[in-house]
Amino acid sequence: MKLQNIKDMSKGNLLGMVGLRRKNSLRIWLGGSGLVGIGLAVGATIALLLTPKSGPEIRDSIFEGFRSLRRRAARAGVELTH
Fold this sequence. Notes:
The chain is mainly alpha-helical.
């Protein structure tokens, strides 16, 4: 292989030639933050279910949490479907 051919190659191709690849740090960060978000939602729901409230009060609290999440997602530019 000529030096000029190596100069014309992309970083991804060069790394691939030696068995490596570039990390997609955004994907890793979003995956980790998604797990944290799910953990927070599950923990909050369990906490609500274990509080000494009546059924309607618990349901109202859970639904208010979802409404709050939807408002925050809308502010962030993410559309949540029903």
